[in-house]
Amino acid sequence: MLSKHLFKLSQTAPHEQTEAGYRIKANKDNFPILKGLSLYKLHLEPNGIHEPHWHVNADELGYCLKGQVLITIYDTEDTKATFLVKAGECFLIPSGALHHIENTDQGSAELVLSFSHELPDDFNLSKVIGSFSNSVLGNTWEKKVRFLKRLIVLKQPPLQRFVKVK
Predict the structure, then answer these.
(1) CB within 8 A of 100, min separation 6: which ones?
(2) What is d(CA 162, CA 20) in angstroms, rounded to the nearest whole number?
(3) DSSP E strands: which ranges in the chain?
C-alpha cells in the first residue's frame, strides 16, 4: 500500500518537454498533501534554457544535481545578478524576480527546484509580451502600431534550445 506521504517523481511523466529538456512537477495537483511547498526536476540539454520568467507567489531554492548552469536574476530592486552554479551547489531566487536558467555545460544539466508554494505561478516573458495588443505595446515603448505589426510574436515553450553562433 502506498502512503499519501510518498510521491514517485522518477516515475512521473514530464509536464513540459522539448528538444531543450523537460520539467517534472510535484505540486498540489499531483501530490495533494503538499502545503506551502512544491518541487520540480528540471533537465536541460546542452544550450537548453528555461526562458526568462518569474513566480509571483513563491521563492525558488535550486540545487544542481548534474552539470553547470548560468543563472541570471533581475531582482525587484533593479539589481542584476549572473552566476554559475555547478553540481553540488544551490541558489535562491526571491519571489517576483525575473530570472532564467541556461545550461552552459557540454553535457546535460539536472536541477531540483523547490518552491515556497504548493502551486507556484510561472509567468513566462514570451507569453506575457505576446498577450498584449500592439496598441498597448506601442504606448509602453513609444512606438507606432504599424511598427509593431511587423514584429512576429512567437508562442515559445518555456524550455528552449539556443544554438551558439561561432
Answers:
(1) 49, 50, 51, 52, 53, 71, 72
(2) 8
(3) 16-18, 21-26, 38-44, 48-54, 60-66, 68-74, 80-86, 90-93, 98-103, 109-115, 123-124, 159-161
Q: How many residues does this entry show for the chain? A: 166
DSSP bridge partners of 22: 17, 43
Side chain identity, residue 129: I
- CATH number 1.20.1730.10 is the correct assignment for the domain at 13-122: no
Mean pLDDT score across all residues of the chain: 86
How many angstroms separate the CA atoms of 2 and 115, rounded? 25
Give pLDDT tens digits for 14-34. 998 888 999 999 999 999 999
Task: Using alpha carbons, list the distances in angstroms from residue 52 to 10, 157, 159.
Answer: 26, 11, 10
- Model pLDDT for residues 105-143, shown as the tens digit of each residue: 999 999 999 999 999 998 887 766 666 666 766 676 676
C-alpha cell at 155: 508562442
